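Supplementary Data S3. Sequence and structure tokens for construct A.
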Amino acid sequence: MPTATELAIAFKKAIDRQDAAALSRLVKTYRELYTRLLPKMDSLILAMSKMDKPTTGQVHRLAQYKSLLNSVEEELAKYQAYVEIEIRAETRAAAELALKQTNAYLANFGLAMPQRINTDAVLNMLGYLQEDSPLWKRLSLYSADNTAKLADALTEGVAFGYNPTKVAKTFERIMGGGLTDAMRMTRTSMLHTYRDASHAQFIANQDVVDGWTWWSSKDASTCMSCLANHGKVYPNTERLNGHYNCRCVAIPHVKIWSEPEQTGEEWFSTLSEAQQKEMMGAQTWDAWKGGAFKFDELSGHRHDDVYGDMNARVPLWELLGAEPPIRNK
């Protein structure tokens, strides 16, 4: 019979596979639209190269400029619809997987869930998936916002006298941001749904499950806030409110049986000094080693318009009780 740790790892791998597959589809579809737009961008660059120090007004009047922006908005509008389909499909699949895995985890130890929740009930109770939620409102602006970012970036490039190569790089950078935005929305909604479906199942069966264990990926890309929480047991009154792109999951904690998990700090202590500094940051590591703060204090919270309270890493200045740094305008 597999141990609790082995089951947790297996379940984490299952949601990671679903996540990777969804992101792969998003990238593939986005690459196709990007490829379709490249000839438009090339035509604009060619037209600009024939002009002697073009002004923003001259570039804006170019047919190639107008054609590029129109095509970008049209392509992104189609991609926006595709992302919505992906989010709806992946959040449902994530909820189904969470409910299935929670049942399987307990069944492995001879326990059963007296109260089973169906997938529709879970999806209907999640505010961020409702039709009037900030998530869908944000997605509805995807095409217009990213097209506007491109127009602003191209205008800035012309104003600063960018050469054609740099203008092309600007196009690549802005379009890359559009893909990142779509991936972040899809991944975060999917993983949030997975965690919330698990939590709903825990609450419905509190006579069996008295809490949950925070489980992170424990790898070089794990954020320090998540690592600070790894292995800790929380009551069902608390939720795992992961940050954007958070890969953490909640493992059910059973009243009559439990297996302690290595904490994030214990795992971190097994790494070399160089690895620790790479993950934590050299300045933060020096302060931590100097006793300026405890490892647990790396984890904090912030408010998000879509998901509400979210886990977040506490910045060094806050850990040291200093004033926030002044940002250059």
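Construct B, processed identically:
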Amino acid sequence: MITNLHIKNYRSLKHINIPLNSLTVLCGLNGSGKSNIVDSIRFVKDSLKFGVKEAIAKRGGIRDIICKTNNENEIQIHIEFSNSDLNGLYSFSIEIQEVKYHIKWEKLSIKTNKDSKDNKSIYFDSTQKTLTAEHKGAIKPIIYPDNIMNANDLALPALRTVSTEINDVFQLLTNSSYYNNNIISENLRSPQLLTEPIPLNEQGKNLCSTLKYLQEKTDNTPLLNSLKAAIKNFNNYSVESIGEYVIARIHYLPDRSFELSQESEGTLKILALLTAMNQFVINPHSLFVLEEPELNIYPETTHIIGEAIKELSLHNQVIITSHSPDLIDVLPVDALKVVQKNNDVTTVGNIIKRQREAIAEELFSAGEIMRMEGFTIDEEEY
């Protein structure tokens, strides 16, 4: 998982350093920069999978990703990672000149977590044009294609072909899913083509295929139990194939059923959110990101979403953004990171000590403090 995120000059993130856990909850007001933090990680994924040029274009161009409150013309991203097999650091810098850019440097260090007698380290430095492996004190160069060094793109996607460990890092940084309010759209109400079920598409275009897969290929009891708790009189769902299309239907007690085209926005949102989370309990990814899950759902179901998030974090790394006191009350206080914006610059940190003590002593819940005065960042820790 990603254990630390260090960003310079990306959008409103002039300079942030965030430790990340199996569950991290970014809480703050609208416009504070929560989405920019999430997008900085997604920018790395998009740059590695589709190229830096496309990742920048997807976000509106160079001028829309560089921090506007700083005179520096360089974006830096540093990601520390760790899992049962390896740990290390991947980082790169993008230097910007007017509407052009180039990769100033790119670095990677990996240490394997195998038996101490068989530990191996791998280092890459684009400025030195070196890729080396260290094993039992001996340092040897790793041969790689000469043409992978490109001033406009990152080298990691090509380097992953020369080392299993480098490929593991590539997978860790790109094997992630992001969900926000785009998950609810007319796509859910129309018949859908039967297609690849996992992962659930960010716009929900394959929701019926995902539901069909979970019903036929897995034990979907946890999903059904969550839906029964969240949707009044919910009994089950069914998926019907019509030619190359699939249509989902929700069945209610005592004996009613409706196609998704007849369901409310709130019911569709709950169905999609719980399906998205349940798929990765069964088929874990490296990272699951969910932005403001409390929007467009019934307030009384917020705690069910919170419980599903906690369950998911036992199987995947999870990052949530939220400004809902009801949802914050369900999630662990230690997972909370406060996000604030002052003078168009985002800052991130832990809850101030006096607020943490009030929660620990059960004088107030985290949600109550959020309602009464809002969270304050503990400046002494940052």
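The mean pLDDT is 93. The two ends are 23 Å apart (CA to CA).
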